[in-house]
Design goal:
There is one protein chain. The protein is α/β, with parallel strands linked by helices and 333 residues long. The chain has 3 domains: 137 residues, P-loop containing nucleotide triphosphate hydrolases (Rossmann fold); 61 residues, Helicase, Ruva Protein, domain 3; 98 residues, Zinc Finger, Delta Prime, domain 3 (Up-down Bundle), CATH 1.20.272. 62% of the residues lie in helices and 7% in strands. The chain has 17 helices and 5 strands. The chain has a 5-stranded parallel β-sheet with strand order 2-3-4-1-5. The longest helix has 24 residues. It is elongated. InterPro entries: AAA+_ATPase, ATPase_AAA_core, DNA_pol3_clamp-load_cplx_C, DNA_Rep/Repair_Clamp_Loader, P-loop_NTPase, Rep_factorC_C, RFC_lid.
Length: 333
């Protein structure tokens, strides 16, 4: 037993605190209640879960599987294939087909095939799968999990009951984070907690990873420590950048931002994302704001193409300079 506890203590928190049953799931009550009803009435359809990462898709189906099957039955009744496994047309025609086609002689009920990260499957594999799903519905249920619904062929979508897992709200994430903090004895400040939730953007897995990293790197998890841990620009750094962009000369603003980027190891992509929030808060005339957002979007697109960060930084600073000159000219007129 001590060996089990030691093994569990070495686990990443995202696995250590993964919900073990449907009661432990913290969000999407309407989806969980619907699935509970399916399970209790023994009428589980083929399922298609989609939505952003860390919103509980895999946890939900694993909790369902643990509720339906005993630990002894689990390995023989559940086939779980992830994106890391080969899931080309050959695997669909061989492994999945042979698993689905073999009946359960001594056990009642159906088998469960879980296809995680299904948007990474080829179209050929998906086309081969649709016939398998149809043919063995009597003794096998399929659960397809993906981030992007558009990457699943319509033929598969129509054979499944779809559920969208939306990003988690702050109210849903906080109780679970507090539970982990209490269990692990982590020292977290109120602003540290707020920073974790802000950076996670509704991704529970990411919030636990940030919490674990920050707690291992620092004795106290504060706002600054959380931002430093994930390499995200601090709020005061972004405020300084916006201040320079709006008030300093081109040369001074460019030089200051470049120095800050080098000192803190910031990516221009992250700076742009944060500055974008401030652009919406500042009371610019509509025409000016549209121009600025257009230029920033263009810069982000160019960054994605792998262009030089220094040149793109010059482009951002110059966009703000043009905006300032336009405002001064309009005021003078």
């Amino acid at each position: 037993m001590d060996g089990d506890n030691k093994e569990k203590s070495n686990l990443p928190w995202i696995e250590k605190y993964r919900p073990q049953n449907l009661e432990e799931l913290i969000s999407h009550n309407d989806i969980v209640n619907t699935i509970k009803k399916f399970v209790s009435e023994d009428r589980l359809p083929h399922l298609l879960f989609y939505g952003p990462p860390g919103t509980g898709k895999t946890s939900t189906i694993l909790a369902v599987a643990k509720q339906i099957y005993s630990p002894k039955e689990f390995n023989s009744m559940v086939l779980e294939l992830n994106a890391s496994d080969d899931r080309g047309i050959g695997i669909v025609r061989e492994n999945i087909l042979s698993f689905a086609s073999t009946r359960t002689i001594f056990k009642s009920g159906f088998k469960l095939v879980i296809l995680d990260e299904a948007d990474a499957m080829t179209r050929d594999a998906q086309n081969a799968l649709r016939r398998v799903i149809e043919k063995f519905t009597e003794n096998t249920r399929f659960c397809i999990i993906c981030n992007y619904l558009s990457k699943i062929i319509p033929a598969l979508q129509s054979r499944c009951t779809r559920f969208r897992f939306a990003p988690l709200s702050t109210d849903q994430m906080l109780p679970r984070l507090e539970h982990v903090i209490k269990q692990e004895g982590v020292n977290v400040t109120q602003d540290g907690m707020k920073a974790i939730v802000t950076l996670a953007c509704g991704d529970m897995r990411r919030s636990l990873n940030i919490l674990q990293s920050a707690s291992m790197a620092f004795d106290e998890v504060t706002e600054d420590n959380v931002y430093l841990c994930v390499g995200h620009p601090l709020r005061k750094d972004i405020e300084n950048i916006v201040q320079w962009l709006l008030n300093s000369s081109f040369t001074e603003a460019y030089k200051n931002i470049l120095q800050l980027k080098s000192a803190k190891g910031l990516a221009l992509q992250d700076i742009l994302t944060e500055v974008h929030v401030y652009v919406h808060r500042i009371d610019f005339p509509v025409k000016i704001r549209i121009h600025l957002l257009d230029k920033m979007a263009e810069t982000e697109y160019r960054l994605m193409s792998g262009t030089n960060e220094r040149i793109q930084l010059g482009s951002v600073v110059s966009a703000f300079q043009v905006v300032r000159d336009t405002i001064v000219e309009e005021a003078a007129a």
